[in-house]
Amino acid sequence: MNQRKCLHCWVFTSHGPTVIMPTWFCSREWFYHVGKFDEGGKGVPEDLLFFYKHIEKGGEVFRVDHCLLLYRYHPQAATHSVLEGTIWNHRVRFLEDRVLSYWISFTIWNAGKQGKKLYRSLSPANQKKVTAFCDVDEKKITKGFYTYEESEERPKPKIPICHFREATPPFIICVKLDLTHGAFEENLNTLNLKEGMDYYHFN
């Protein structure tokens, strides 16, 4: 996959924008076209919201391999006022709008904490599209299913848990990269899937 495509597929990852805001540069015309930053005040992730609007308006992401800026971190930076939960909610809504609204069903790759958190955060309509969780952990697989205890439905939804080789794409992957000495990446590669079509990372 070329770099341009790869960066665009990674806009849903846990670090928000594929590239951090202090390194951005674009034309003034494009900045005004996107609509400037959201100046809603303390606690608003204005860079994330601007980045999402940029993507929604057809903007792309490119990488320039040069040091363009020295960014000085300091403890009083406004970024500390943005709650993790706020960013999470924006990320989920963006994923739903840009990907899940076009899928009729999908599998969440990770039957652990992050995968279940994503499931619980989805809209009811998108929760119903989840056909299964998949994993490599035999303990989770043996359990057989995840019960959504917080649901008001009766009976409560039970989502199957299966081995990743038995799962049906497309996938939303909630597994962090570079944490398993290449084991997860090797498992993913064995399926011969196409990123941006058969799966997206939401790690």
Automatic annotation (TrEMBL):
It comes from Apteryx owenii. InterPro entries: Nucleotide-diphossugar_trans. One of its GO terms (molecular function) is glycosyltransferase activity. This is UDP-GlcNAc:betaGal beta-1,3-N-acetylglucosaminyltransferase-like protein 1.
